[in-house]
Amino acid sequence: MSVAQLLDGTAVARRSFAETAERAADFAAAQGRSVCLATVLIGDDPASQTYVRMKQRRAAQLGLESRRVRLSAETTTDEAVAAVRALSEDDTVDGILVQHPAPAQVDELAVFEAIAPKKDVDGVTMHSFAAMGLSANGFHSCTPEGIVRLLDAYDVPTAGRRVCVVGRSAILGKPVGLLLLARDATVTFCHSHTTDLAAQVSEADIVVAAVGRPELVRGEWIKPDAVVVDAGYNPGNVGDVEFSRAAARASYITPVPGGVGPMTIAVLMEQTVTAAENRVR
């Protein structure tokens, strides 16, 4: 029995990081300042703190300035919006990342909308969502864009392929479907009200699991030689797909970790440098 080839996001991201670091250095030399990414963390969720530290560490490695804004768990929507709006108006900030999720009392969409579109390097505003849907200029949601670039890196064709996206979040499931639709894939979205999820998955040439439930997608559901992209990350380094059994059927599969995650950060860093370059043109 053959085993699927890994879609190695770590290796692909490494090449992107090298290019981004070079562009960041060129920008700093020309402008007399470093590219600046501002991260906004609301509350004290441990996973969110870890993700922000990872992004800050990578920014520093690539020569970007990382500015951290920490807001308490009791922060109101108005307070968070004001903090983000101030960053949008700050000429020394090139990109803004608001770490998801926010505490329950915060209207996350309102906070996202306080990000100026030209600084929305995480692709979370309605402007960016429309740009993805209309194939117009704008920043893309980082994880969906990272998935598309990972497929490209391994020459995985999408035109005419049947894609099953398991999950419909506004920051992952929906936008990855839009990006693949723009590449002429036939996209089916599955969610908590989908009847017979197994049947939907089993017909797909490409499966994107993005629901946040450990091993929800069973290995036996995978169509032989399908491509499996697991965008889930659950405690214990477990994805949304039953990895070992899926790998025995698929042609390509992402590891967890080391698949989608590094690509997300690579896109974030690249789009931040692009935002800085766009602002001085």
UniProtKB/TrEMBL annotation:
SUPFAM superfamilies with a match to the protein in the record: Aminoacid dehydrogenase-like, N-terminal domain, NAD(P)-binding Rossmann-fold domains
MF terms in GO: methenyltetrahydrofolate cyclohydrolase activity; methylenetetrahydrofolate dehydrogenase (NADP+) activity
Keyword annotations of the record: Amino-acid biosynthesis, Histidine biosynthesis, Hydrolase, Methionine biosynthesis, Multifunctional enzyme, NADP, One-carbon metabolism, Oxidoreductase, Purine biosynthesis
Reactions the enzyme catalyzes: (6R)-5,10-methenyltetrahydrofolate + H2O = (6R)-10-formyltetrahydrofolate + H(+); (6R)-5,10-methylene-5,6,7,8-tetrahydrofolate + NADP(+) = (6R)-5,10-methenyltetrahydrofolate + NADPH
EC numbers: 1.5.1.5, 3.5.4.9
InterPro entries: Aminoacid_DH-like_N_sf, NAD(P)-bd_dom_sf, THF_DH/CycHdrlase, THF_DH/CycHdrlase_cat_dom, THF_DH/CycHdrlase_CS, THF_DH/CycHdrlase_NAD-bd_dom
The keyword Amino-acid biosynthesis belongs to this UniProt entry's keyword annotation: yes
The UniProt record lists the keyword Glycosyltransferase: no
Domain Tetrahydrofolate dehydrogenase/cyclohydrolase NAD(P)-binding: 141-279
Binding annotation for NADP(+): 167-169
Biochemical pathway: One-carbon metabolism; tetrahydrofolate interconversion
Domain of life: Bacteria
Domain Tetrahydrofolate dehydrogenase/cyclohydrolase catalytic: 7-122
GO biological process terms held by the UniProt record: L-histidine biosynthetic process; methionine biosynthetic process; purine nucleotide biosynthetic process; tetrahydrofolate interconversion
An example Gene Ontology CC term for this record: cytosol
Quaternary assembly: Homodimer.
Family listed: Belongs to the tetrahydrofolate dehydrogenase/cyclohydrolase family.
Role played: Catalyzes the oxidation of 5,10-methylenetetrahydrofolate to 5,10-methenyltetrahydrofolate and then the hydrolysis of 5,10-methenyltetrahydrofolate to 10-formyltetrahydrofolate.
Protein name: Bifunctional protein FolD
Organism: Flexivirga endophytica
Name of encoding gene: folD
